[in-house]
Known about the structure:
By secondary structure, the chain is of the alpha+beta class.
Amino acid sequence: MSDGSESERTFDRVWTVRFSDTDPFGIAHYPRIVDAVHETSDMFMQEIGFPFWETSHDHGFGLPLVQMDFEFERPMRAGDEVTIELTPSLGTSGVRFEYTARCDGDVTFTGYEQRVCAEQGGGSAVEIPDDLRAAMEPYATD
Length: 142
């Protein structure tokens, strides 16, 4: 059991960098890295029972992206197996997905996506519903 200072578990997935993900220099191109990050958040939301493609239809809210930032620490190349770790940090009406990516134990990039919980149809920000909060909390940091 966690002492509250760290999440009880993390969500991570392995992204294999494909040749088609690289630029002419053989390095993973940043738009493909952004795609891999978005896919990671999609996978996380599905894992906790709130796939993005169902939240607005089934629950009446969404988690639109309002800000993102990344720092690249070392290049990734075709064939690299990159573990992308996602840790949510919950606010009242928003969640920040923190990312750390590693290849062969070395950090390749860190970053975050800031998302806000908003009513379906572009409405105003609302509090994160209790059931979504409960689903994220086992992975969350304080």
